[in-house]
Amino acid sequence: MHQGSAARLVALVVGALLLAACGGGQPAEPATTPDTAPATRTVTHALGTAEVPQDVQRVVSASVTMTGHLLGLDVPVIATATAPPGGVADENGFFLQWAPAAVAGGVVALGGPQAPIEAIAEQRPDVIVGSAVGLDAVDGEVYSRLSQIAPTVVFDHSTASWDELAAELGAALGHEQQAAAAESEFDARAAELQLDTTHPAAALTVTSEGLNVFTAESAQGKLLQSLGLQLADVGTGAGAGAGGGDRRDVVRLAHENVGQLGDASLYVVNADRSDIEEYRDAHPVLAGLPAFAEGRVVPLGPESFRLDRFAAMSVLDRVAAAQD
């Protein structure tokens, strides 16, 4: 056979084989493209932005005030900064309202309240969460150091309701459904309450120097409003003042001026029934308010000091108990 004819024959045979492999001459199907979903999500927070893994597995709370919010969303918290034991915290330094969940989940107590950077690094987190305010705040310098360990996100809880912060954290960490479920659970329980709304309401703490009255911008004030209560207006007149610094969540009221609360029902944060009875003796001007005479003083317990999903549900239970 002529050399040129042989070459053409080989080409025809190879071509036929290729067409057969492709399915009778039809164009080849394109290769399946791999999942192009990003491995991280960009989270904007109080101190900047961070690239957070889509599927977080090892979260460390650098601020004890954030831990309850994370546990309430079923975020995999492996370790947390802690508070001094006693008062609002158990022997581990866990806040009382979420201590059982932390113990059951094997959460490691790292000390605190300031972020223990070396201890956090030893936990090999894939995300670090911190607070922008308070004694356990993550400032710019600490944030820079934590960000070298793992993506770090910092949130300001001072003027957010517990469910607003839950929604924000849920969106940042891929737990949106858990945040929605927490809010639904609260709303269902709150709907069972039948509160007297004929009086204004005030959420407050009592100190030896006076009262700290929570404003409409505080988590405690927002919780009362979510129950259909109208907050008493203590104003900023004589004896009242801002809560200190740039805080907008608290107004301070001197004991001699507690009359500015008028006939408001009082919801006392970080107090039990025994504390209320002590106030009758220790602060006679406060005890002279109509709320004391008419039994409209409700202790919200130590867990109400920092509201998260656990604390919010506990507050509802205490409010319900006060109606019995």
Automatic annotation (TrEMBL):
An annotated GO BP: iron coordination entity transport
Signal peptide: 1-27
Keywords: Signal, Transport
Residues covered by the Fe/B12 periplasmic-binding domain: 58-324
Alphabetized PROSITE patterns for the sequence: FE_B12_PBP
Keyword Transport: yes
GO cellular component: outer membrane-bounded periplasmic space
Location of this chain's protein in the cell: Cell envelope
Similarity field: Belongs to the bacterial solute-binding protein 8 family.
PANTHER family given in the database record: FERRIC ENTEROBACTIN-BINDING PERIPLASMIC PROTEIN FEPB, IRON III DICITRATE-BINDING PERIPLASMIC PROTEIN
Protein's recorded name: Iron complex transport system substrate-binding protein
Organism: Pseudonocardia kunmingensis
